[in-house]
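Appendix B. Raw example, untouched.
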Amino acid sequence: MKVILADDEILVRLGIRSVIDWNRHGFEYAGDAPDGAEALDLIRRTKPDIVLTDIVMPNMNGLELIQAIKRSDPGIRIIVLSSHNEYDYLRQAMKLGVDDYILKASMKPEELLALLLETADKIAAEREEADAGPIRSQQRKESEGRDRLAQTIHRWIGEDSQDTPQGVAGSDRDIAEDEKEIPLAANNMLLLLRVHPQPPNSAGEPLELHTLIDLAELEMRKWLHGYALPYNDHTVLLLIPIKEPLPEQDGIVEGLCGDIVSALKRFLAASVSIGVSEPFADRTGLKKAYWQARQALERYFYEGTEKVYRYAAETELSTKNGEPLFTKEDERELRNRIELLDETGMKRIVGRVLGSMRENRRQIDLSIQICLALLHHLQAGLKKFDEALFAEGEGEPLYKQVIAFQELHEAERWFDRLIDDAADRAREALKKTYREEIQQLILQMKQNYAEDWSLKQAARMANMSESYLSYLFKKETGVGFAAYINNIRVEKAVEYLRETNWPAYVIGEKVGYDNINYFGRVFKKLIGLSPQQYRMQFQLKGNEHAIPKH
């Protein structure tokens, strides 16, 4: 199977081309391109089966390339290469119908190869099915009818909607023709059913969506006539046309939803939640009904899964970022707690941020972005103790575990376990690096860097003579005692220069220098610029000068 790559970074293109033995695993590496426009030309010439593409590229970006591929040859499979801060773009790419994604920052050759092999298996299965002939069962015909119905509703919902990925053209199909396909009544209800992923170690068989839809429709029609329609891999639409308002209609809908949740749990071991819109009258009300049902459904993240949520204006989730819930002060305090390997402090800060998420109740995508930011800061800080600390094993990559969070309670428990495990392993790594006496002394210096440190005081704390501590400290760390404390203080000063507007003399005092001139000399010796010059360059150019490692 032919594979091509689109990425504007030449090192990424060279790396991916060379890390996989393509022929051995049944692939042909058909070429690469630095942007979407050249990739599209390469696709026309080589006719690949699989396209690997970056998102942010010049000339034609990844989203535009994906749209062009879907229009010209929808059979081509697409895998997105993404960065941790491109979650919004990735979300749009997933809506365009890409097969999978992988983070470039943590990409391992074996993980990429596994994705390619999995995609190749899908292609082979589709071709085998196509070769089997035109014979289809009645169930397949019904499924195709559902799909056509679902596509029409999807089109109605997507037109001019904020859910539609930017740049995707709307359908020019005649509206009157669409309206013939779905017999809306005078009083309709739209329900969104979310299928939550099975636990990783679940012993059950993989859940087939069409089986779930059949059972959901069967339970629904015990109460009311309606349609259960596939919307995407984890969401089912339940459309209920009601000719006239029913007595106790709210109670009927509650009973219907409760039966569906219960039956799917009992017969298929499927965990689902349902969001219910307000009644609507016609096609123009469908978009609003979808938005209401989605708003109601997403409350499961904060209030729990396997429940039914009716839309109410007062329970709307925020669709905007608003005030940051993970503030610069939180970031700075989290870095400090990580440096001290203080897991209680790390948990306190993470818990505070997650508590703010619960209080502010933003849409799930926005909350997941905050969780990804927390993970990124924990990984960046704790890797300083051991580069192999977060090496991917056989399990799911950490960022994918975060994206898959179903409830805020799950996120809280997950971060607690992560911090406990990572801090223990970092402590073990530290023991292998430094003797315990030096290790404890370093943690004390990092915690109390602003105090008036002297070799005499440190020797007393370590229960050693000054000369022996001086010798041992340099042997263990590679630098002298005075140089080490200066490194710590200047690193803290750099943080304050980046993140506050305090004058240099205040920052000098904050990090332990009473003499501003001495602070300036030490800072310039280690960084190469005065504090004022550093701040100016950082603010004007965004340059991040290297901070001494210790």
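End of appendix B.
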